[in-house]
Amino acid sequence: GENHHDTADSYYTVGLAYSDQGENNKAFEYLLKSLDISKSVYGENHPETIKIHDSIQRVNDLSQNNCSIF
Fold first, then answer.
1. Mind listing the pLDDT tens digit for each residue in 14-34?
2. Residue 17 CA to chain centroid, in angstroms?
3. Which residues are within 8 A (CB) of 17 and not within 5 positions of it... i.e. 6 or more apart?
4. Closest CA relative to residue 25, chosen from 63, 68, 61
5. How far apart are the C-alpha atoms of 44 and 66, rounded to whole Å?
6. Where are the extended beta strands (E) located within the chain?
C-alpha cells in the first residue's frame, strides 16, 4: 500500500535516480514522498527517515537554486 516501507524505498530509489540525472525537481518530489511515508511508518528519528533527510539535503546542496525545503 501507499504507507508501506517498501513504497517508501521505491520512491527513494526513483528520487535518487532522478538526482543522478540532474532532475532535481523530480528527485525532490519522490524523496519527499519517501520521507512522508518513512515518518509515518518509522517516526522522525529512525535511521531510515534520517537517511532520506540526508539525501534530500545532498540533492538540495547540488541543485542550482539551493533553496531549503525544511
1. 999 999 998 999 999 999 999
2. 11
3. none
4. 63
5. 23
6. none
